[in-house]
Design brief:
five-stranded mixed beta sheet, 474 residues, alpha+beta
């Protein structure tokens, strides 16, 4: 694992450390992919992690100089909640909604998604279609480039060891443009793309296409455009014949990969279907924003925004104790600096409530609140708890009084084997902070990152409903 962990208070501090450490250091913005990859031994050269998660003002979305600008700490949930993006860059919001579950979207950043550079990463596809740019910063200065030029191959970028992705800049869609992101996964949530597509068209007053962009994900080593389909669409109305031919041309332009999620032949057929379906929806003129009006975020009163940055940087090492406030109690723990937050809580703080079910953010059994935000603790580095507030399932009740969601689980017999229960309780408690009377859709979305292997979801949902009623009666 890592040897040193630095929590910095400014970008300049991060850049100085990157410059000193070179290829032995890596930035932690969300770290959801990085911590898993390091535990698998995929980055043996890394010795130093540089945590920028408490640098203020890096999690902002703004319209500046005619561009939508995303900072390096903008998470997928920030994007989903942004009216600016939903109005002027809708495909990115739709793709962000498809990423993981609330706990992951609260932690994983769009910038990190771009740097990981997997062709199955959902947000890269719409950003390529939107013709986004990125700004890379080092101690020596800045350089900007189109996102399409950022990639050199499969999981390879032009990011230098001493650079940080400082901004993502997106040309906003005009009133005459319509865009859509569609994804084919093997399940309704927490799915990796088999194929995904982002399609953006500009239509003139007669309904003819004057500009078309078709980007495709999970079909090649990088995200690719479909130039033949784009050229064919120009000057044409989106008739059924035109839509079908554009889908065929898009499919013919790729040589899809074969993997466990789908064969090359299947992917090629799905490209044709997804592109045609997207064009058909864009031509219909009907509303295409399929994100719920009030989606559960599970991110607390501050909505996942860094309100108070660190006053000074902190260098964590094996002789530097982690000082945290856990379940309302101040703790100073001398060990666990090289663990995940989950294992630190279980092994060193001696709170076994959070469980390890998968160790890769798939099951939600390890859900805790970190600075009031629901996260998967298996995907957070333990030093992030230093100076932070953590709540585990043991901290839900007040004195001898159970939290309404805990009492409801008892009353509704919602506990099966019990292993997943702490994660469900944490998701439920945070949901009830956001909604006094969540509907069934909101309940289902709130637990999309929680897996019950006993398949007892009916009783769990019943418990959520009862907990909402109990809260309303207080």
């Amino acid at each position: 694992m890592w040897k040193a962990y630095h929590s910095v208070s400014t970008i300049d501090e991060a850049l100085a450390l990157l410059n000193d450490q070179g290829g032995a250091a890596r930035i932690v913005a969300g770290g959801t992919d990085l911590i898993i990859e390091m535990e698998r031994g995929q980055h043996p050269q890394l010795e130093t992690l540089i945590d920028i998660t408490r640098v203020a003002d890096l999690d902002r979305i703004a319209l500046r100089d005619g561009r939508i600008v995303l900072g390096p700490l903008v998470t997928h949930n920030h994007v989903v909640a942004s009216e600016l993006i939903r109005q002027r860059a809708l495909p990115l919001a739709q793709a962000s909604w498809e990423v993981g579950a609330p706990q992951i979207r609260n932690r994983a950043t769009v910038a990190g998604n771009l740097i990981t550079a997997s062709p199955a990463n959902d947000t890269i596809t719409p950003l390529i279609a939107l013709e986004a740019e990125v700004t890379l910063t080092s101690a020596a200065g800045e350089r900007a480039m189109k996102l399409a030029d950022f990639y050199r191959g499969f999981r390879q970028t032009v990011l230098r060891p001493n650079e940080l992705l400082r901004e993502i800049r997106i040309p906003p869609m005009g009133d005459d443009q319509r865009g859509l992101f569609l994804k084919l996964g093997l399940r309704r949530a927490q799915a990796i793309s088999v194929v995904d597509a982002a399609v953006i068209v500009r239509l003139d007053s007669q309904g003819r296409v004057s500009d078309a962009r078709v980007a495709l994900g999970s079909v090649a080593a990088t995200i690719v455009r479909a130039p033949a389909a784009e050229a064919y669409l120009n000057g044409k109305c989106l008739t059924e014949e035109t839509v079908a031919e554009a889908g065929r041309l898009a499919s013919a332009s790729v040589r899809p990969i074969d993997d466990v999620r789908g064969s090359a032949e299947y992917r090629a057929e799905m490209v044709k279907i997804l592109v045609a379906r997207a064009l058909r929806q864009l031509a219909s003129g009907e509303p295409i924003d399929n994100i719920p009006v009030a989606p559960p975020m599970l991110w607390g009163a501050d909505e996942g925004i860094v309100k108070r940055g660190l006053r000074a940087s902190i260098a964590h090492s094996t002789d530097q104790p982690i000082k945290s406030r856990v379940n309302g109690v101040d703790v100073i723990i001398a060990t666990g600096q090289q663990k995940s937050l989950l294992h630190w809580l279980r092994d060193d703080v001696k709170l076994p409530g959070a469980k390890e079910g998968c160790a890769e953010g798939e099951c939600g059994a390890c859900t805790v609140f970190l600075d009031d935000v629901a996260v998967m603790s298996c995907m957070v580095h333990a030093p992030r708890a230093h100076g932070a507030e953590v709540v585990t399932v043991e901290g839900l009740q007040t004195g001898q009084t159970l939290h309404p969601i805990q009492q409801a689980f008892i009353d509704q017999a919602a506990v099966q084997c019990g292993y997943c229960t702490p994660g469900f309780l944490m998701s439920g408690a945070k949901l009830l902070e956001e909604f006094d009377a969540p509907d069934t859709e909101q309940i289902n979305y709130s637990i999309s990152g929680n897996l019950c292997r006993c398949t007892g979801y009916y009783k769990i949902v019943d418990a959520f409903r009862q907990a909402a009623r109990m809260k309303a009666e207080v």
